[in-house]
Protein backbone atom coordinates (compact mmCIF):
# COMPACT_ATOMS: atom_id res chain seq x y z
CA UNK A 1 0.00 0.00 0.00
CA UNK A 2 2.86 2.42 0.79
CA UNK A 3 4.51 1.75 -2.54
CA UNK A 4 1.22 2.25 -4.29
CA UNK A 5 0.70 5.57 -2.51
CA UNK A 6 4.18 6.73 -3.47
CA UNK A 7 3.65 5.81 -7.11
CA UNK A 8 0.30 7.58 -7.17
CA UNK A 9 1.85 10.66 -5.53
CA UNK A 10 4.58 10.70 -8.15
CA UNK A 11 2.02 10.45 -10.94
CA UNK A 12 -0.05 13.29 -9.51
CA UNK A 13 3.08 15.41 -9.16
CA UNK A 14 4.09 14.70 -12.75
CA UNK A 15 0.58 15.54 -14.01
CA UNK A 16 0.50 18.82 -12.09
CA UNK A 17 3.97 19.68 -13.40
CA UNK A 18 2.94 18.98 -17.00
CA UNK A 19 -0.22 21.05 -16.55
CA UNK A 20 1.78 23.94 -15.13
CA UNK A 21 4.25 23.73 -18.01
CA UNK A 22 1.39 23.79 -20.53
CA UNK A 23 -0.15 26.83 -18.85
CA UNK A 24 3.18 28.64 -18.78
CA UNK A 25 4.13 27.75 -22.36
CA UNK A 26 4.89 30.88 -24.38
CA UNK A 27 2.40 31.96 -27.03
CA UNK A 28 4.65 34.26 -29.04
CA UNK A 29 8.33 34.43 -28.05
CA UNK A 30 10.92 31.71 -28.40
CA UNK A 31 8.68 29.35 -30.39
CA UNK A 32 8.54 28.57 -34.13
CA UNK A 33 6.88 31.23 -36.25
CA UNK A 34 4.18 28.85 -37.46
CA UNK A 35 3.30 27.97 -33.85
CA UNK A 36 3.02 31.65 -32.90
CA UNK A 37 0.62 32.21 -35.79
CA UNK A 38 -1.37 29.10 -34.84
CA UNK A 39 -1.71 30.47 -31.30
CA UNK A 40 -2.95 33.78 -32.72
CA UNK A 41 -5.52 31.92 -34.84
CA UNK A 42 -6.71 29.94 -31.81
CA UNK A 43 -7.06 33.18 -29.84
CA UNK A 44 -9.02 34.75 -32.72
CA UNK A 45 -11.37 31.77 -32.89
CA UNK A 46 -12.04 32.06 -29.16
CA UNK A 47 -12.71 35.79 -29.48
CA UNK A 48 -15.01 35.23 -32.48
CA UNK A 49 -16.96 32.58 -30.59
CA UNK A 50 -17.32 34.96 -27.64
CA UNK A 51 -18.47 37.79 -29.91
CA UNK A 52 -20.91 35.47 -31.63
CA UNK A 53 -22.47 34.43 -28.32
CA UNK A 54 -22.76 38.07 -27.26
CA UNK A 55 -24.20 38.94 -30.66
CA UNK A 56 -26.93 36.32 -30.33
CA UNK A 57 -27.80 37.69 -26.89
CA UNK A 58 -27.97 41.23 -28.25
CA UNK A 59 -30.19 40.09 -31.13
CA UNK A 60 -32.54 38.39 -28.69
CA UNK A 61 -32.61 41.45 -26.43
CA UNK A 62 -33.27 43.75 -29.40
CA UNK A 63 -36.15 41.58 -30.63
CA UNK A 64 -37.72 41.52 -27.14
CA UNK A 65 -37.42 45.29 -26.79
CA UNK A 66 -38.96 45.80 -30.24
CA UNK A 67 -41.82 43.43 -29.36
CA UNK A 68 -42.48 45.32 -26.10
CA UNK A 69 -42.46 48.67 -27.89
CA UNK A 70 -44.90 47.47 -30.55
CA UNK A 71 -47.10 45.88 -27.92
CA UNK A 72 -47.15 49.13 -25.93
CA UNK A 73 -48.00 51.06 -29.07
CA UNK A 74 -50.79 48.59 -29.87
CA UNK A 75 -52.44 48.95 -26.43
CA UNK A 76 -52.04 52.73 -26.38
CA UNK A 77 -53.73 53.00 -29.76
CA UNK A 78 -56.83 50.95 -28.62
CA UNK A 79 -57.27 52.62 -25.21
CA UNK A 80 -60.72 54.32 -24.80
CA UNK A 81 -60.61 58.11 -25.17
CA UNK A 82 -61.64 60.27 -22.21
CA UNK A 83 -60.84 59.65 -18.58
CA UNK A 84 -64.48 59.91 -17.39
CA UNK A 85 -65.78 56.83 -19.21
CA UNK A 86 -65.40 54.34 -16.36
CA UNK A 87 -68.35 52.12 -17.34
CA UNK A 88 -67.59 49.88 -20.24
CA UNK A 89 -70.10 48.24 -22.49
CA UNK A 90 -70.19 44.60 -23.46
CA UNK A 91 -68.29 45.25 -26.66
CA UNK A 92 -65.60 47.53 -25.23
CA UNK A 93 -62.38 46.15 -23.76
CA UNK A 94 -62.21 46.36 -19.99
CA UNK A 95 -59.12 47.08 -17.95
CA UNK A 96 -58.94 43.50 -16.66
CA UNK A 97 -59.66 41.75 -19.92
CA UNK A 98 -56.90 40.22 -21.95
CA UNK A 99 -56.34 41.98 -25.26
CA UNK A 100 -55.79 39.90 -28.34
CA UNK A 101 -52.22 39.40 -29.37
CA UNK A 102 -51.11 41.95 -31.95
CA UNK A 103 -50.58 40.69 -35.46
CA UNK A 104 -47.41 42.06 -37.05
CA UNK A 105 -46.81 42.32 -40.72
CA UNK A 106 -43.35 40.89 -41.24
CA UNK A 107 -43.09 42.24 -44.77
CA UNK A 108 -43.91 45.86 -43.85
CA UNK A 109 -41.22 46.24 -41.16
CA UNK A 110 -37.54 46.23 -42.07
CA UNK A 111 -35.39 43.68 -40.35
CA UNK A 112 -32.45 44.73 -38.27
CA UNK A 113 -28.98 44.71 -39.87
CA UNK A 114 -27.79 42.06 -37.43
CA UNK A 115 -30.67 39.79 -38.41
CA UNK A 116 -29.90 40.27 -42.08
CA UNK A 117 -26.25 39.51 -41.47
CA UNK A 118 -27.09 36.34 -39.58
CA UNK A 119 -29.38 35.24 -42.41
CA UNK A 120 -26.78 35.84 -45.09
CA UNK A 121 -24.16 33.92 -43.16
CA UNK A 122 -26.25 30.78 -43.23
CA UNK A 123 -26.97 31.05 -46.96
CA UNK A 124 -23.58 32.26 -48.19
CA UNK A 125 -22.12 30.25 -51.01
CA UNK A 126 -19.17 30.54 -53.32
CA UNK A 127 -15.60 31.50 -52.50
CA UNK A 128 -14.02 30.76 -49.18
CA UNK A 129 -13.47 33.55 -46.72
CA UNK A 130 -10.09 34.22 -45.15
CA UNK A 131 -10.94 32.92 -41.71
CA UNK A 132 -12.31 29.52 -42.72
CA UNK A 133 -9.15 28.41 -44.53
CA UNK A 134 -7.53 27.58 -41.20
CA UNK A 135 -10.50 25.33 -40.38
CA UNK A 136 -10.01 23.10 -43.42
CA UNK A 137 -8.43 19.70 -43.29
CA UNK A 138 -4.74 19.51 -44.06
CA UNK A 139 -5.13 18.23 -47.63
CA UNK A 140 -7.50 21.04 -48.62
CA UNK A 141 -5.32 23.62 -46.90
CA UNK A 142 -2.26 22.41 -48.82
CA UNK A 143 -4.19 22.49 -52.06
CA UNK A 144 -5.16 26.11 -51.45
CA UNK A 145 -1.59 26.99 -50.57
CA UNK A 146 -0.49 25.51 -53.89
CA UNK A 147 -3.09 27.59 -55.76
CA UNK A 148 -2.35 30.87 -53.97
CA UNK A 149 -0.27 32.41 -56.76
CA UNK A 150 -3.16 32.14 -59.25
CA UNK A 151 -6.20 32.50 -56.98
CA UNK A 152 -8.34 35.32 -58.48
CA UNK A 153 -10.87 35.95 -55.73
CA UNK A 154 -8.90 37.40 -52.81
CA UNK A 155 -6.23 39.36 -54.71
CA UNK A 156 -5.77 43.11 -54.89
CA UNK A 157 -4.56 43.70 -58.42
CA UNK A 158 -2.38 46.79 -58.58
CA UNK A 159 -0.97 47.39 -62.01
CA UNK A 160 2.60 48.68 -62.09
CA UNK A 161 2.80 51.39 -64.78
CA UNK A 162 6.51 50.80 -65.33
CA UNK A 163 6.53 47.07 -65.91
CA UNK A 164 2.87 46.28 -66.55
CA UNK A 165 2.86 43.49 -63.95
CA UNK A 166 0.42 42.70 -61.19
CA UNK A 167 1.71 43.26 -57.70
CA UNK A 168 0.71 40.15 -55.81
CA UNK A 169 1.74 38.79 -52.46
CA UNK A 170 3.32 35.37 -52.49
CA UNK A 171 0.61 34.33 -50.03
CA UNK A 172 -2.44 36.48 -50.85
CA UNK A 173 -5.27 34.38 -49.40
CA UNK A 174 -4.28 34.51 -45.75
CA UNK A 175 -1.75 36.95 -44.29
CA UNK A 176 0.30 34.89 -41.88
CA UNK A 177 1.89 37.58 -39.72
CA UNK A 178 2.16 37.13 -35.93
CA UNK A 179 0.08 39.52 -33.88
CA UNK A 180 3.08 40.86 -31.98
CA UNK A 181 4.89 41.73 -35.24
CA UNK A 182 1.84 43.42 -36.74
CA UNK A 183 1.16 45.45 -33.58
CA UNK A 184 4.81 46.55 -33.25
CA UNK A 185 5.13 47.54 -36.92
CA UNK A 186 1.85 49.49 -36.86
CA UNK A 187 2.87 51.27 -33.66
CA UNK A 188 6.24 52.28 -35.09
CA UNK A 189 4.67 53.51 -38.33
CA UNK A 190 2.13 55.56 -36.38
CA UNK A 191 4.19 57.03 -33.54
CA UNK A 192 7.89 56.43 -34.24
CA UNK A 193 8.77 57.78 -37.67
CA UNK A 194 10.12 61.05 -36.24
CA UNK A 195 11.80 59.39 -33.25
CA UNK A 196 15.54 59.98 -33.48
CA UNK A 197 17.62 56.84 -33.14
CA UNK A 198 14.77 54.36 -33.20
CA UNK A 199 16.07 50.75 -32.86
CA UNK A 200 19.33 52.18 -31.48
CA UNK A 201 18.35 54.07 -28.34
CA UNK A 202 18.00 51.92 -25.22
CA UNK A 203 14.65 50.97 -23.75
CA UNK A 204 13.19 50.12 -20.37
CA UNK A 205 13.94 46.45 -19.71
CA UNK A 206 11.14 46.26 -17.16
CA UNK A 207 8.48 47.60 -19.55
CA UNK A 208 9.72 45.42 -22.40
CA UNK A 209 9.63 42.34 -20.16
CA UNK A 210 6.07 43.20 -19.13
CA UNK A 211 4.96 43.55 -22.77
CA UNK A 212 6.64 40.27 -23.59
CA UNK A 213 4.88 38.47 -20.74
CA UNK A 214 1.52 39.92 -21.79
CA UNK A 215 1.92 38.68 -25.36
CA UNK A 216 3.18 35.31 -24.11
CA UNK A 217 0.15 34.65 -21.93
CA UNK A 218 -2.21 35.57 -24.78
CA UNK A 219 -3.31 39.04 -23.67
CA UNK A 220 -4.68 41.17 -26.51
CA UNK A 221 -2.16 43.98 -26.06
CA UNK A 222 -3.16 47.26 -27.69
CA UNK A 223 -0.09 49.40 -28.34
CA UNK A 224 -0.99 53.09 -28.31
CA UNK A 225 0.70 56.45 -27.87
CA UNK A 226 1.28 55.78 -24.17
CA UNK A 227 3.78 53.04 -25.00
CA UNK A 228 7.33 54.13 -25.67
CA UNK A 229 8.47 53.70 -29.27
CA UNK A 230 11.87 52.47 -28.05
CA UNK A 231 10.19 49.79 -25.92
CA UNK A 232 8.13 48.57 -28.88
CA UNK A 233 11.20 48.56 -31.14
CA UNK A 234 13.14 46.53 -28.57
CA UNK A 235 10.22 44.10 -28.29
CA UNK A 236 10.21 43.55 -32.06
CA UNK A 237 13.96 42.89 -32.09
CA UNK A 238 13.58 40.42 -29.21
CA UNK A 239 10.89 38.52 -31.11
CA UNK A 240 13.11 38.17 -34.19
CA UNK A 241 16.19 37.29 -32.13
CA UNK A 242 14.47 34.62 -30.02
CA UNK A 243 12.93 32.69 -32.91
CA UNK A 244 14.31 29.11 -32.99
CA UNK A 245 14.77 29.42 -36.75
CA UNK A 246 15.35 32.93 -38.14
CA UNK A 247 13.02 34.60 -40.59
CA UNK A 248 15.34 33.55 -43.42
CA UNK A 249 15.75 29.83 -42.62
CA UNK A 250 19.21 28.53 -41.79
CA UNK A 251 19.04 25.91 -44.53
CA UNK A 252 19.00 28.77 -47.08
CA UNK A 253 21.91 30.58 -45.46
CA UNK A 254 24.51 29.48 -48.07
CA UNK A 255 22.16 30.41 -50.91
CA UNK A 256 21.52 33.89 -49.52
CA UNK A 257 25.24 34.39 -48.94
CA UNK A 258 25.88 33.44 -52.57
CA UNK A 259 23.55 36.25 -53.69
CA UNK A 260 26.12 38.75 -52.44
CA UNK A 261 28.40 37.67 -55.28
CA UNK A 262 25.83 38.80 -57.86
CA UNK A 263 24.99 42.30 -58.95
CA UNK A 264 22.14 44.19 -60.56
CA UNK A 265 19.20 42.38 -62.09
CA UNK A 266 20.82 38.97 -61.62
CA UNK A 267 21.02 39.51 -57.87
CA UNK A 268 17.39 40.67 -57.61
CA UNK A 269 16.11 37.75 -59.66
CA UNK A 270 18.18 35.33 -57.59
CA UNK A 271 16.83 36.78 -54.31
CA UNK A 272 13.29 36.68 -55.64
CA UNK A 273 13.60 32.98 -56.39
CA UNK A 274 14.88 32.42 -52.88
CA UNK A 275 11.85 34.24 -51.47
CA UNK A 276 9.63 31.80 -53.38
CA UNK A 277 11.19 29.01 -51.32
CA UNK A 278 10.24 30.56 -47.97
CA UNK A 279 7.30 29.13 -46.02
CA UNK A 280 4.18 31.34 -46.32
CA UNK A 281 4.44 32.56 -42.72
CA UNK A 282 8.10 33.55 -43.15
CA UNK A 283 7.35 35.24 -46.48
CA UNK A 284 4.43 37.31 -45.14
CA UNK A 285 6.25 38.30 -41.95
CA UNK A 286 9.34 39.32 -43.92
CA UNK A 287 7.21 41.43 -46.26
CA UNK A 288 5.56 43.20 -43.30
CA UNK A 289 8.91 43.85 -41.65
CA UNK A 290 10.58 45.15 -44.81
CA UNK A 291 7.70 47.48 -45.60
CA UNK A 292 7.96 48.98 -42.10
CA UNK A 293 11.74 49.37 -42.39
CA UNK A 294 11.33 51.04 -45.79
CA UNK A 295 8.86 53.49 -44.23
CA UNK A 296 11.24 54.22 -41.36
CA UNK A 297 14.23 54.88 -43.63
CA UNK A 298 12.14 57.25 -45.78
CA UNK A 299 11.95 59.53 -42.71
CA UNK A 300 15.67 59.33 -42.00
CA UNK A 301 16.57 62.75 -43.41
CA UNK A 302 15.39 66.11 -42.07
CA UNK A 303 12.29 67.46 -43.83
CA UNK A 304 10.64 70.85 -44.16
CA UNK A 305 7.20 71.11 -42.58
CA UNK A 306 4.15 73.13 -43.60
CA UNK A 307 5.34 76.17 -41.63
CA UNK A 308 8.81 76.06 -43.18
CA UNK A 309 10.07 74.44 -39.99
CA UNK A 310 12.71 71.76 -40.24
CA UNK A 311 11.41 68.48 -38.84
CA UNK A 312 14.24 66.29 -37.52
CA UNK A 313 14.54 62.89 -39.15
CA UNK A 314 15.05 59.65 -37.27
CA UNK A 315 18.62 59.26 -38.66
CA UNK A 316 17.91 55.60 -39.43
CA UNK A 317 18.96 55.10 -43.03
CA UNK A 318 18.56 51.78 -44.82
CA UNK A 319 22.22 51.00 -44.14
CA UNK A 320 21.78 51.59 -40.39
CA UNK A 321 18.68 49.40 -40.34
CA UNK A 322 20.53 46.66 -42.21
CA UNK A 323 23.27 46.69 -39.57
CA UNK A 324 20.69 46.22 -36.81
CA UNK A 325 18.36 43.66 -38.41
CA UNK A 326 20.78 41.70 -40.60
CA UNK A 327 22.16 39.41 -37.84
CA UNK A 328 18.58 38.67 -36.69
CA UNK A 329 17.30 37.78 -40.16
CA UNK A 330 20.16 35.70 -41.53
CA UNK A 331 22.03 33.16 -39.39
CA UNK A 332 24.22 30.21 -40.28
CA UNK A 333 23.51 26.62 -39.27
CA UNK A 334 23.66 25.81 -35.56
CA UNK A 335 26.88 24.45 -34.13
CA UNK A 336 30.03 26.17 -33.02
CA UNK A 337 30.34 29.77 -31.95
CA UNK A 338 27.55 32.00 -33.26
CA UNK A 339 29.02 35.29 -32.04
CA UNK A 340 29.73 38.07 -34.56
CA UNK A 341 33.45 37.80 -33.74
CA UNK A 342 33.52 34.11 -34.73
CA UNK A 343 31.37 34.76 -37.79
CA UNK A 344 34.08 36.80 -39.46
CA UNK A 345 34.09 40.26 -40.96
CA UNK A 346 33.37 38.98 -44.46
CA UNK A 347 30.23 37.08 -43.45
CA UNK A 348 29.00 39.96 -41.32
CA UNK A 349 29.52 42.43 -44.17
CA UNK A 350 27.74 40.11 -46.60
CA UNK A 351 24.75 39.75 -44.26
CA UNK A 352 24.44 43.53 -43.93
CA UNK A 353 24.76 43.98 -47.69
CA UNK A 354 22.07 41.38 -48.42
CA UNK A 355 19.70 42.91 -45.84
CA UNK A 356 20.27 46.33 -47.39
CA UNK A 357 19.27 45.00 -50.81
CA UNK A 358 16.12 43.45 -49.32
CA UNK A 359 15.08 46.73 -47.67
CA UNK A 360 15.74 48.90 -50.71
CA UNK A 361 14.14 46.57 -53.27
CA UNK A 362 11.41 44.77 -51.34
CA UNK A 363 8.62 46.06 -53.62
CA UNK A 364 10.29 44.63 -56.71
CA UNK A 365 11.25 41.41 -54.95
CA UNK A 366 7.64 40.77 -53.92
CA UNK A 367 6.22 41.58 -57.36
CA UNK A 368 5.07 38.46 -59.18
Automatic annotation (TrEMBL):
Q: What InterPro entries does this protein's entry cite?
A: Rho_GTPase_activation_prot, RHOGAP6/36, RhoGAP_dom
User: What segment(s) does the record annotate as region Disordered?
Assistant: 1-43, 78-122
Q: Where is the Rho-GAP domain?
A: 168-366
Source species, domain of life: Eukaryota
Under SMART domains, the record lists:
RhoGAP
- Which ranges are annotated Low complexity under compositional bias? 80-94
Composition bias (Basic and acidic residues) maps to 10-24
Q: Where is the composition biased (Polar residues)?
A: 109-121
Q: Which UniProt keywords apply?
A: GTPase activation
Which Pfam families does this entry report, sorted A to Z? RhoGAP (PF00620)
**What PANTHER family does the entry give?**
RHO GTPASE-ACTIVATING PROTEIN 6, RHO-GTPASE-ACTIVATING PROTEIN 6 FAMILY MEMBER
Q: What is the name of this protein?
A: Rho-GAP domain-containing protein
Species name: Characodon lateralis
Amino acid sequence: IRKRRKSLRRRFDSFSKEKKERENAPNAFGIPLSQAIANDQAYKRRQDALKESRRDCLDLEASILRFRAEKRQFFNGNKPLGSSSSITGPGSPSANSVAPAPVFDAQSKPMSPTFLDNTSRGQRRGGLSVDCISDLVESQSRLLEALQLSHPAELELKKSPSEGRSKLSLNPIYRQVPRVVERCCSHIETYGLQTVGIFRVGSSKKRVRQLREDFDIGVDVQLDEEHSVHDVAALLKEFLRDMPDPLLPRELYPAFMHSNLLRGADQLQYLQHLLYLLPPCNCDTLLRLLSMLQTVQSYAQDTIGTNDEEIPGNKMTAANLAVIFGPNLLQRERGGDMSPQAMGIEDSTAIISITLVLIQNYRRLFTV
